[in-house]
Amino acid sequence: MRLQAFAPVGQTLRAGIDTVLVSRLQESLDDFGDRFLQRLFTPAEQAAAGGAPERLAARFAAKEAALKAFGWHDTGIDWREIEVHTGAQGEPRLRLHGKAAACARAEAVHEIALSLSHDGDHACAIVVALAATPVFPSNSQPSPP
Amino acid sequence: MNHSALIDDPVTTQIRAVLAQHGRLGQPVESLADGADLYQAGMSSHASVNVMLALEGAFDIEFPDHMLTRSVFASMAAIRAAVLEIQAG
To answer: Are strands A82-86 and A12-21 parallel, antiparallel or unpaired?
Structure first.
């Protein structure tokens, strides 16, 4: 069976994925300590992760997945403006702040879904969103995988 | 600007040292030209964060939000320009 995904008429479907090695996340914590935590994660994210490197790795992957999904790698977004939190049903959700929220509003992003996973040394995240504007500016193209 | 013109520059020397330690490049940093694409050379987004934090420590600076972009860390020349801009205030 062949499955295809279509965005509703007038909408664009955006997706981004990222993988982080848990052992390398731990190395970053060892090398930079609190500075790494404070620079990348909000206090709520740090509390939710409870210091577990696999949870921090998945949350960092989520931020990078969001940057890819929205084409924001050259926008100048603080990682803490892309926050992972837990929804009412226990599901991971993205909450955007500051410039990230302003960019999302400007691009008419109205639905964002997030999934996190980790197994052994690998943590990954995927972000899927619906927006009412083109995925990338007309003068740029997404990088090949 | 070519590689040999910057090779004795102390800022570039420090940047090369940071990249050698934290960049996780797929080839020796000494083999890369100053304008070489570091992401093409194997630097991941995670490694670029480590490079940023190490540069902040090495130069006693802080990258402002508007410099938290892929292009600022895309090459040694771009990093050098950013470091000098921050140091100039």
So the answer is: unpaired
State the Cα angle at B72 between B71 and B73, rounded to 5°: 90
Say whether A31 and B54 touch across the interface (CB within 8 A).
yes
Angle at A109 between CA A62 and CA A71, to 5 degrees: 55
Q: What are A130's strand-pairing partners?
A: A13, A111
A56 touches chain B (CB under 8 A): no
* A23-37 CB burial, b ≥16 within 10 A, e <16: ebbebbbeebeeebb
Q: Which of A36, A67, A78 is opposite residue B65, by nearest beta carbon?
A: A78
Query: If contacts are CB pairs under 8 Å, which of residues 1-40 in chain B contact chain A?
Result: 22
Q: Are A24 and A65 in contact (CB under 8 A)?
A: no
| Span A6-36, pLDDT tens digits | 667 778 899 999 999 999 999 999 999 999 9
What does the block give as tokens for A27? 């190395």
